[in-house]
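Workshop exercise sheet. Pairs work together: one partner reads the sequence aloud, the other fills in the structure field after running the prediction. Swap roles for the next sheet.
Pair: D.N. / O.F.
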Amino acid sequence: MSPNLATKIVGISVDNPLILASGILGMTPSTLRRAASAGAGSVVTKSVGLTARDGYANPTVHIIGSYGLINAVGLPNPGIDEFIREFQNEDFNFPVIYSIFGSSPQEYSEVTKKLLTLNPVAFELNLSCPHVKTVGSLIGEDPQMVYKVVREVKSSVDIPVFAKISPNVTDVLEIAESAAKGGADAIVAINTVKAMAIDVNAMMPILANKSGGLSGPAVKPIGLKIVYELYESVKVPIIGVGGVQYWKDAVEYLLAGAVAVQIGSAVMWKGLDVFGEILAGLRKYMAKKDFSSIEEIIGGAHK
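Structure field:
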């Protein structure tokens, strides 16, 4: 019997546990459909806020060989009203999770309430952008603010709310616990790690914003450790993200305790075919281990 990759993420039925992460694609309906067609079980949109943002000037992305990339894009988005106009007549036959950001609990709440017109399956709260302080790190580094944002959004909607947390804090577990106390239905761990690169010839930082967030294979050991620890301490489901390029990476996150795995920067190196490649490897692994469902893998490294 072929292994069954279908599962549920906080009650949301998906064909498989692979999710397109926010930030790489996802600002248009067509790119979301391409990711789903390539094999993503569900998708997360690029983060949208209350008002339009242009983002930072170029260069905004610096690729470091095959092990990482640093970006400081600056959360560019058209603003919630324009975003809704683009998505309002679209009909998706796969789960779409909407990523949002704001500068206050009230702003997060206002954006989520507007997005309800699109019938989302869940919201992902971007509490962790490392290079936009007013709508990212200032909120995500403060346990009380994290609690207030999640609680405010949860009081405004009746669908699952995921809290995407930052590794750039003194105590990741404290932040995750604050999100859980606020009512988060799942924790997404992790966002990018603060980083920078310097051009030795120009003798100045490469990115226009000087610093940004590191993603890619280099951050996988960090994300993996955090997911492992969260599984043992926080009583809500965990979605792992950070450096997933191959099927073994996805399995490691599942074994660490993640119920699903997001894939982001790997799309830049391998294209959308990465979803199909990981699914094929996952099926072979499950058949070899005689696993019939994804649930049999989750948390296996803790036994």
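Discussion prompt: The mean pLDDT is 93. What would you look at next?
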